[in-house]
Amino acid sequence: MSAPLRVVIVGGVAGGMSAATRLRRLDESADIVIFERGPEVSYANCGLPYYVGGVIEGRDALLLQTPESLHRRFRLDVRVRHDVVGIDTVRKTVEVVDLDSGRRSTHPYDRLVLATGARPRGDEPTGALPTRSLRTVADADAIDAALRPGLPVVVVGGGYTGLEAVENLVARGAAVTLVQRGAQLLAPLDPEMAAPLAAEVRRRGVDVRLGVEVVATAAGSVTLSDGATVPAEFLVDASGVVPEAGLARAAGIRLGETGGIAVDEACRTSAPDVFAVGDGVEKADLIGGGAALVTMAGLANRHGRMVADVIAGREESARPALGTGIVQVFGLAAAKTGWSEKQLRAAGREFFAVHVHPASHAGYYPGAETLSMKLLADPATDRILGAQVVGRDGADKRIDVIATALQAGVTASGLAHLELAYAPQFGSAKDAVNLLGYVAENTRSGTTPTLQWHELDGALRAGSTLIDVRSVAEHANGAIPGARNIPLDELRDRLDELPEGPLVVHCQVGLRGHIATRLLRQHGRAVRNLDGGYRTWQDATAEC
Q1: Which of 86, 293, 406, 489 would staple 95 via disulfide (CB 3.0–4.6 Å)?
Q2: How many domains does the chain have?
Q3: So what's the pLDDT on residue 126?
Q4: In a 10 Å sphere around its CB, with 0-12 CB exposed, 13-18 middle and 19+ buried, how is residue 438 labelled?
């Protein structure tokens, strides 16, 4: 009888524990050992901000499993506070330090899975100021213990984790300053899509500082790169993470251009019988085709499961990643899949963009909320390249539909033909996703030529005239400088008032502008519709 397969897993959270439990379900005889440097395994790290905020009331709710429960159910040998400090890929052993006793030991493996994750970037100065990231249960415990009403807290980083931290610190009564190095919050989004989040965060009393960094700290304050001093008795570092790849590097395992562990389509590393999954690993990017760091719990779990299948002898491979993600701040959700316009421009890719602002469900049914949606697609192939959705209701549903369509190869125009569930409390007969498809088809085909918000100033300087086809009351309530107001329903009767030369028309969100563009083109005028209308322009020109 052959000896059982010896599998060592380094890291006991998402990817590592998914690999361990899946492998046990496939192979009852395997000898599976998990070494975890921290005191907990299989905890809900995505729930940590909500424990701090009191939404998740019980700390135990974060601890999905324990070493004891995992042993009872799966016969896994889970060793917490055990740090793997070395790998010998020739002898196929790992060197482990028991952090409680200091004792060192060597453990052999037939297969090794690295699920070491990522660590905080750690480049923020701290000095005498208490500082925590928000990645472990210990972090959440420390922040929870420090909080009191009115406590001045600085959060560094306006990404997913930083925004979740801000929301939950405000819920606990803290006086929060949010410091963001870049020019906008939520950098994965384009600026006009991120702007509503910045407005909402400010509306809730958060002091948002954009385009600055923390350069010094002292007891009771931080100093920013613009010279400002901000009160602070606690700092939450959400400035980003880097792959925890030092163990792999020291073992001679190849790292990729991103700094993450390089793996093939089955998550094999450059070392024989060594696999790697999770936030510390490069992913294949579906849009660009190259390598990317995508730190999403869903991918870590999925790849951990896949590696277990491969170890058990099954033929499996990972699909390229899209980086689909969502965050909710004070009830306002922002979601993204694929690439942003910023990424496409930086890569020199050809694309066209579509903005729409539909209702989350039928407008006549109570409670409908406005969604802001952006679609990016290839003008030559109509391939979807990315999408972003912001709103208080229905953003999650729409981004998931688009992400699924993108993976399945549905084109931008093809979104119009998706048959989606409809009842007035859930959607519209023309769902918001269908609407994106209609507008994408009109834009790509030239049926309705469009102009983006950031192209408007250039068009006006070049001699175009801007026509606002909203009502007189709407125009009076807020207008783009220089726009002439001719309401859509009066346009046919006032064509002689239009100046010679090219025109740009706009309405509130784009629909009336589309109708006006079609009317004017059939009267022989050169005209473009301002994509997304006044709403997109207004968001884009706000501080984000």
Answers
A1: 86
A2: 4
A3: 63
A4: middle
Taking the model in full, what pTM does it have?
0.93
- Residue 235 has φ and ψ, to the nearest 5°, of -125, 130
Whether residues 163 and 211 fall in one domain: yes
Same domain, 27 and 164: no
Of the candidates 373, 382, 511, which has an alpha carbon nearest to the alpha carbon of residue 432?
373
Burial of 73 (0-12, 13-18, 19+ CB in 10 A): exposed
Q: Which of 445, 469, 489 is the last residue of a domain?
A: 445
Among 219, 239, 259, residue at a domain's last position: 239
Domain hosting 107: range is 6-119+242-311
C-alpha–C-alpha distance, residues 419 and 490, integer Å: 36
In this structure, are 216 and 284 located in the same domain?
no
Q: Is 326 part of a structural domain of the chain?
A: no
Single-letter residue type at 442: N
SS3 per residue for 72-138: HHHCCEEEECEEEEEEECCCCEEEEEECCCCCEEEEECCEEEECCCEEECCCCCCCCCCEECCCCHH
Q: What is the pLDDT of residues 192-229, one digit of tens each?
A: 999 999 999 999 999 999 999 999 999 899 999 999 99
361 vs 356: CA distance, rounded Å: 14
* 320 in any annotated domain: no
pLDDT tens digits along 125-157: 667 799 999 888 899 999 999 999 999 999 999
For helices 14-26 and 67-74, give the axis angle rounded to 10 degrees.
20
